[in-house]
Amino acid sequence: MEEKTLNADAAEVQKFSELAHRWWDPESEFRPLHEINPLRLGWIDAHSPVAGLRAIDIGCGGGILAESLAARGAVVTGIDLSDKALSVARLHLYESGLSVDYRKVPAEEFAEQQAGQFDLVTCMEMLEHVPDPASTVAACARLAKPGGTVYFSTLNRNPKAYLYLVIGAEYLLKMLPRGTHDYARFIKPSELARFARAAGLECEELIGLHYNPLTKKYSLGGNTDVNYLLRCRKK
After folding, report:
1. pLDDT at 19
2. Residue 235, number of CB atoms within 10 A of its CB
3. DSSP 4
4. What domains does the chain contain, in order, with CATH numbers?
5. Global pTM?
6. What does the pLDDT average to over 207-226?
7. Phi, psi at 54, each rounded to 5°
8. How much is the mean pLDDT over the chain?
9. What is the sign, positive or negative, of the torsion defined by CA atoms of 69, 72, 146, 189?
């Protein structure tokens, strides 16, 4: 794929590359990912039992979700554009003993090579970091087999989300490094649903991801004001 058409922000890739060595430290900047992973994995497995499925994780980073899918019996591919994150992901396989096929390739390019090859497609915490999220959604849809399931998670765009995720998480609670999120790139559920439908996906469930700062626990529920997940099926 020509660089001019690459749906990626070099600054975003570099930002996560610089933190890649801390990806598997549960007390690092990636602590929230470690804490929400069992929750979202359970949600995925409840609707799409992953054992034996061919799965792909788009924007896999250091491999937290990809490894978890493999641990539950899926045949997993993980793609990302960060060499450092992928190196960390591959190294961690020696510790976990799991098998994941990690590749450095844009989602759009891989969708041309592997169209309709995956039972399960996940794209978590990535859409808000790319210039053209609709293009990524379309690539996810192309990768899925007919009848396959596609899962997205991202951040809503409204004043409450700005207060919680930027002011709260980055500045007050310091759960994330400052500058992790660009509010202008947050995506409303209606926008994501529109991208999905345009790509040939049927939206089956929209659910919120909640954080309680007092108990420091995450949960799933009906409020999608801040973090949310969307489950889709390819027609």
Report:
1. 77
2. 12
3. G
4. 3-155+184-234 (3.40.50.150)
5. 0.92
6. 91
7. -90, 115
8. 90
9. negative
